[in-house]
Design brief:
It contains 22 helices and 37 strands. By secondary structure, the chain is an alpha+beta fold. A hairpin with a 6-residue loop joins strand 10 and strand 11. It starts with 5 loop residues before the first strand and ends with a helix.
């Protein structure tokens, strides 16, 4: 075998000129890397960089499929870091700094060589203390929550009260202990101050890198309340920060739209501030300490004693278009508005002589309402709270939008009202910088830039394509006019959705990352209030579409779009515990609103892109959660509306149900070499092989999760398009690389060729037992059709596939927005016929066809506006 000697890496986005810890993933060809072989990292100058490596997936021959790596870059004399790196086999060099993790009876002490952090095993304080050079910078880092309770609601008057909660740790585990990277995971719940109630489970991970002053925090909130009674008024994480200096040498910072709010509890600004005092005031706003002589400066010191002392400061991002910075002197006094803006950078700082902490909440304005609050800055201990949901906003309202379903009028999935948020989650990311002095503007800008787009190393698209990472997809190719035209169309669809996120304001704590489903051209809005036509919730796998767009381009903006969708759909749209554990909610006005709870919404196949590219442990948890989602279908039969209870424990479709299960099992098998899940896949495939017409049969089967067996329920019992438009081709193509089962590949090819045949042609194969009516929406079939044409070298099927793709509006229409007047700030641009289902599927299927059947792509004629009805309108 011709082994790859090295793998080239580049930055996803050029990082800020500062040392950073970074973790990333790399795929390998089967048989190329054994688990015993060490890996080294070199920068663009050939200098070895210490690296920590571990395996995240294996091939069936027990060789390594994916690895993850951690390193610290931009250190030493080359503080600007390298623009490119190379991974190769070989022993890694030792790091100048090594993380150590010391275990005590009550805590774990993590020493990066720069900071020392004590993490609790029990109690309320997750972080007991953070010290640097023996000086404590922070203590008692705990989660805080405010619950709003309705005491009474009569005569039109609603009386509410608030109850405060704090974190209580149930379990602390060290998942990695260096030498470059350490990870500590904490689980627990929030307990009321009275101790009478615990609720809202949480998972926190703390990430440390050798020689670094930073701590990355990934926080997951899980909802286990009653939405009609349990309202979350605020939730966040608070730190106690010691204040050791005169009030005028204590510093407060908030990131605004572009600049930084830079003040102090005791500002040097008075009506007499001039001359040398004006110079000192300017130094103060830059974060420098100032000093006075008691005699020489007595008058000005007297002015300072007389001036107001500002004890509390806060920044509240109350919407995606507005934030406000305010301050006050005392709790009984008003909040004074300092500044209004649009998009805060989400970074704050509090510190004094000896240092302090900067804390930033990622996607701060996108996941509004969020906040940063600094209180008691004039006292010995200040408090710094990062609010994931600011208590200055109305309490979360997680109720459904109605008390009944609207299946016929609004395309809601089931008559049963199962609109519950019980078991959903939400993940937020923070960064802490534990600094020895107040950062200046230049450093604050670097921090904000790193917060907005964390540093990440990635492989080149050509390498990812060469090793078939994530199955079958094509690289961009503009070598002919027709190919260039299709590439323009693919780029145009993606660009449209990037603009729509901003134009339509698809933001908010529970919404950010999702797209909407379909459009209302009369009101010039997406169907935000039309039952099953509002939020997309992974319908027709837009996640896979966005990730494939990134794989083939390497573009940072597309990565961030896919990342946001992954964070949202893996948490908000999926149930992590409770009655529907492992399932998710179909598209709806409210993310958890649809009565259809299905495995395909939360399947591992949607999220493993992000996991393998970043080694994100939270996504790893979620993929573990769904490994046995097939058991949940026993008490919630996916086909309960069509097949009554019988001898089978439940009924499933080959797709999307079994396809989702197989993605979960494939991921479990390759991550842990758990052959029980491999065997479950093989049992399912053997069941399909035993059906009269293979994949063409069914597609609904009786199913037993204990055995994994599928029992045929007939050969013409359900529509085939749902088999293959929810990610099945992407999962099955990659599964074929693992199984190397020619009969499985033959069945996929047979299905692809069969799908778009006429009834007469179908009858020659299935003897009139399968109706063409069961094969709707031909554009959704093209990934399978292209595979069939490629596998069988079937020119006719290939040409038919291209005909279907090119006769679609996404190929035939110039994707130009039209300006309209609507209820919107400023002119609104729209494409009034678009829908996310077909945008995702047309794009995915075109990308696959461009690699499998590109030689059959015809010349695409130029389409004039007056000749096309959609354009003409």
């Amino acid at each position: 075998m011709n082994l790859q000697k090295s793998v080239s890496l580049r930055w996803l986005k050029e990082p800020a000129k500062m040392p950073v810890g970074v973790t990333w993933g790399i795929p390998w060809r089967e048989g190329e890397l054994t688990r015993e072989e060490p890996i080294s990292l070199r920068d663009s100058k050939g200098i070895e960089v210490p690296v920590q490596s571990w395996v995240t997936a294996y091939w069936p021959d027990r060789s390594v499929k994916w690895t993850a790596h951690a390193a610290v870059v931009g250190t030493g004399s080359d503080t600007e870091g390298s623009s490119n790196y190379t991974i190769a086999k070989g022993e890694t060099t030792e790091s100048a700094h090594k993380i150590t993790v010391e275990k005590t009876d009550t805590s774990f002490v993590i020493d990066t060589g720069i900071i020392e952090c004590t993490v609790a095993k029990q109690g309320s304080a997750l972080i007991q203390s953070i010290t640097r050079s023996g000086i404590e910078l922070c203590s008692h880092g705990e989660l805080v929550c405010i619950k709003e309770l309705i005491s009474s609601e009569a005569a039109g008057v609603r009386v509410v009260r608030e109850e405060k909660f704090h974190s209580v740790i149930s379990k602390t585990v060290v998942e990695q202990d260096g030498p470059i990277r350490a990870v500590v995971k904490l689980d627990g719940k929030h307990r009321s101050t009275s101790g009478d109630l615990e609720w809202l489970p949480f998972t926190i991970r703390l990430y440390f890198y050798a020689g670094q002053e930073t701590i990355r925090i990934v926080h997951t909130l899980l909802y286990d309340g009653d939405p009609n009674e349990d309202y979350i008024k605020g939730v966040g994480i608070a730190f106690s920060v010691p204040m050791r200096a005169p009030l005028y040498n204590r510093h407060v910072r908030f990131a605004g739209d572009s600049g930084y709010f830079s003040e102090s509890p005791k500002t040097l600004h008075t009506r007499r501030t001039q001359g040398k005092y004006r110079e000192r005031f300017e130094k103060q706003t830059k974060g420098e300490n100032v000093y006075f002589q008691p005699d020489e400066d007595a008058y000005f010191i007297g002015l300072l004693h007389d001036s107001a002392t500002w004890d509390d400061f806060k920044l509240v991002q109350d919407s995606a278009e507005h934030y406000r910075i305010s301050k006050r002197t005392k709790e009984e006094c008003c909040w004074l508005k300092a500044v209004d803006g649009r998009h805060s950078g989400g970074l704050g700082f509090i510190g004094s002589e000896g240092g302090g902490i900067a804390a930033g909440l990622r996607n701060f304005w996108q996941k509004c309402p969020s906040g940063l609050e600094l209180t008691h800055t004039s006292r010995d201990q200040a408090s710094f709270t990062v609010w994931f949901w600011s208590p200055d906003a109305p309490a979360m309202d997680l109720r459904h939008y109605d008390t009944e379903t609207h299946v016929e009028s609004s395309y809601e999935g089931a008559e049963e009202l199962r609109a519950t948020p019980y078991g959903i989650g939400n993940t937020s990311e923070l960064m802490l910088w534990c600094v020895s002095e107040t950062p200046g503007t230049e450093m604050l800008e670097k921090m904000t830039a790193e917060l907005e787009s964390p540093s990440l190393l990635v492989c080149e698209p050509a390498y990812l394509h060469e090793v078939r990472a994530f199955g079958i997809w094509s690289l961009p190719d503009r070598s002919s006019p027709s190919k260039a035209y299709l590439e323009d169309q693919l780029d145009g669809v993606a660009a449209f959705y990037q603009r729509e996120v901003q134009q339509r304001g698809w933001y908010g704590f529970w919404d950010y990352g999702d797209f909407m489903h379909s459009y209302d051209p009369v009101r010039h809005v997406w169907n935000y209030d039309l039952g099953g036509c509002a939020w997309q919730n992974t319908e027709l796998v837009p996640n896979m579409w966005l990730w494939v767009l990134f794989l083939r381009s390497g573009r940072e903006d597309l990565f961030r779009l896919a990342e946001a969708m992954t964070r949202h759909t893996s948490e908000v749209d999926v149930y992590h515990f409770g009655e529907y554990a492992g399932l998710g909610s179909r598209h709806n006005v409210v993310h958890w609103g649809c009565g259809c709870k299905e495995a395909r919404i939360g399947m591992a196949g949607l999220h493993r892109y992000y996991y393998y590219l970043t080694a994100d442990e939270r996504i790893g948890d979620i993929m573990d959660e769904v490994k046995d989602s097939d058991y949940t279908t026993v008490h919630l039969d996916p086909m309960r509306a069509y097949f009554p209870k019988d001898e089978h424990p439940t009924h499933i479709r080959v797709g999307p149900d079994w396809a989702a299960f197989s993605s979960n099992w494939m991921t479990r098998w390759e991550r842990y070499e758990d052959t029980a899940y491999r065997d479950k896949i093989i049992t399912g495939i053997d069941s399909i092989k035993a059906a009269r017409y293979g994949l063409i049969s069914g597609p609904t089967y009786g199913y037993d999760p204990n055995t994994g067996r599928l029992t045929p329920m007939g050969d013409d019992n359900w529509g085939r398009h749902l088999m293959i438009c929810m990610g099945a081709p992407q999962v099955w193509f990659e599964l074929a690389d693992l199984l190397k089962d020619p009969i499985w590949e033959q069945m996929m090819a047979d299905f692809g060729v069969y799908y778009n045949l006429s009834q007469e042609q179908k009858d020659t194969i299935t003897f009139g037992e399968v109706s063409t009516n069961r094969f709707a929406h031909p554009v959704l079939s093209i990934a399978m059709a292209a595979f069939g044409a490629y596998y069988k070298q079937d020119r006719s099927t290939a040409e038919q596939a291209w005909s279907i793709l090119l006769d679609n509006s996404y190929a035939r229409v110039q994707l130009q927005n039209e300006a309209v007047q609507a209820v919107h700030v400023g002119p609104l641009e729209e494409i009034d016929w678009i829908n996310t289902n077909e945008a995702a599927q047309w794009s995915l299927n075109t990308i696959i066809s461009l690699v499998l059947i590109a030689e059959h792509l015809p010349e695409i004629p130029r389409i004039e506006k007056e000749d096309h009805p959609v354009l003409k309108e």
